[in-house]
Structures are given as C-alpha cells and as structure tokens.
Amino acid sequence: MSNLGDDSELTILVNLDEDAKGVVQMLIFDREDGFPEVHENAVSKNTAKVENGKAIFNFENLPQGTYAVAAFHDGDADGKNEKNTSWYS
Fold first, then answer.
1. Rounded CA separation 44/30 (Å)
2. What's 41's DSSP letter?
3. 6-10, 13-17, 56-60, 64-68: the lowest-pLDDT one
4. Can you tell me the distance from the alpha carbon of 40 to that of 34, in angstroms, rounded to the nearest whole number?
5. By CB count within 10 A, which of 5, 6, 17, 72 is most buried?
6. Prediction pTM value
7. For residue range 28-59, what is the model confidence (pLDDT) as tens digits?
8. For the purposes of burial, counting CB atoms within 10 Å of the CB of 57, is it exposed (0-12), middle (13-18) or buried (19 or more)?
9. How far apart are CA 52 and CA 61, in angstroms?
10. How far apart are the C-alpha atoms of 42 and 35, rounded to whole Å?
C-alpha cells in the first residue's frame, strides 16, 4: 500500500490483438457482492475505445483500498454481451 493521500488515481492498460476494434468496458468493485456481472454494484465504471490494440483507463479519486476489476471487450461497440465477446477479471 502506498502513502498517497486519501484518494488515488488508478491507470489500467488493456492489451488486445493489434487488429482488435470496438471498445472495452471496465468495472471496478470494492466488494465481492455482484462481481463481475452486476454493474450497479461497481464503485466506478468506464468505457475506452480500442486503438492500436490497446484501451487505456484512468480512474481518479478512488479511496485507498483493494479492488477487483472486470473488463469486457465489445468488439462491435454495441454495448451487448454476445457469445463471441470476452470477459476478463
């Protein structure tokens, strides 16, 4: 645990295949309840466009603590979890 202030910034880089398209949706949870599918239980959520096989997320003002992260690659950027999409946690 670092000695940063009460709140911190978290940067996450998601590497995909270089030819990947679409967006990555990311959820940050501070408890097991609802992880990873219940979006309403996430303390923070964000969407990043995939560019050159990468999606970069910056979460600010997160209280110091332990978090779980779930990421969903939406290859056609339609916001739906289809059979050929991927969840990572």
1. 9
2. G
3. 6-10
4. 8
5. 72
6. 0.79
7. 999 999 998 898 999 999 999 999 999 999 99
8. buried
9. 28
10. 8
Type of residue at 7: D
Average pLDDT of span 52-81? 89
Interatomic CA distance for residues 61 and 72, integer angstroms: 23
* Order of strands across the sheet that contains 68-74: 44-49, 23-29, 68-74, 86-88
Whether the CA torsion 89, 22, 13, 28 is positive or negative: it is negative
Number of other CB atoms surrounding residue 72 within 10 Å: 20
